[in-house]
Amino acid sequence: MAVDSPAAVAREDRIADLVYAGVAALAAGAAALESEFSPVVAVWLLVGLVPWVLVVLRREPPLPAFAVLALAPVLAVTLIWGIGVALFVGTAAASRVAARAQGLWLVAAVTIVAVALPFLPPLAGHEAQLGSLYFAFGNLFGVLVGVLLRRTSELTRRLRAADARLLEASAREERHRLARDVHDLVAHSLTVVVLHIGGARRLLRSDPTTTEAALGDAERVCRESLDGIRGVVGLLRDDGQAADPAVDLADLVSTYRDAGRPAELILHGDADGLPLLTRGTLHRVVQEALANASRYAPPGSPVTVDVAVTDSGVTARIENVLSGTAPSPRGAGGFGLIGLREQVAAVGGELTSGPAGANWTVLCRLPVATGSLPSASRTLR
Prior knowledge:
Radius of gyration: 38 Å
Structural class: alpha+beta
Order of helices and strands: HHHHHHHHEHEEHEEE
Keywords: ATP-binding, Kinase, Membrane, Nucleotide-binding, Phosphoprotein, Transferase, Transmembrane, Transmembrane helix, Two-component regulatory system
Strand content: 5-15%
Catalytic activity: ATP + protein L-histidine = ADP + protein N-phospho-L-histidine
Largest sheet: 6 strands, mixed
Transmembrane segments: 15-33, 40-57, 63-89, 101-120, 132-149
Protein name: histidine kinase
InterPro entries: HATPase_C_sf (IPR036890), Sensor_HK_TwoCompSys (IPR050482), Sig_transdc_His_kin_sub3_dim/P (IPR011712)
Distance between the termini: 53 Å
């Protein structure tokens, strides 16, 4: 829902003030006509219009002063000359004060004066009229209208503030998502590149052909990473939908295996039948676990990725030999396993990590929609 801007709310308040001022001017004109344009009455009516002129000219006095300046001349005209039409000036003044006042005492005082005004002429010797009761109810209704206008204005401002907070939260969440995307992409790619370069350095003199192949793979991964980063950065500029992410677990594991890290994927069920959101989350978890294993596990030690897909959910277990240094829960910038736990929790899953015997284990459970998933089992080495 779009909420009015501050300028729009101020414009609506301005329009309401002009309407109130127009009603007061018309009532004063009718009162002058009823007095047969008595100069004294005209002067009192002009005095009663002074605060309204200030409102129109944006030189509005404080609200209590406005109430006194607008209602006092009406009181004099009705008491001295018994001109009932002038009460409409008081109705407009009371309604506007109720629409602008923040304190209950001012609204209560103006309400009492507005309701009592129609009954004052008989106290000054003027003939009592049944219309006094109607005027009293009319003034009370005018105050009620002012109170409702004030409540509407306050609700609009609150909705505008809530809308601004929601927009800020949405922008913050989008920044976090992009940061996670960049982290996952860069951490994975640089880890693979480091593995390739490390292997090339060790084989530089003894096996130039393998060294060249490793450096070629490192170059390829760097180019792919650069293309991926361009795609993520493009999300900041493009309004269109981004392309579906690459979520092939076999390709992911083979990338690390080609880089010299013994990696094995054991897949029970068909991961391709999972919803895209579940596949993407699973891919991120395996990617982060492989990157951590490559950084912290002893060189050359194997990593096992065991994924089981059933009708009710997906379970992924990534294990590697535990070294003296445990994987950090945070990656660079704080978007490692902690960020993954947030992502997994957002889709209703659970992610745990820690030592289990001689291995470091990352265990992820993700729910899937109820449905039949094809059954299959395969092992990739």
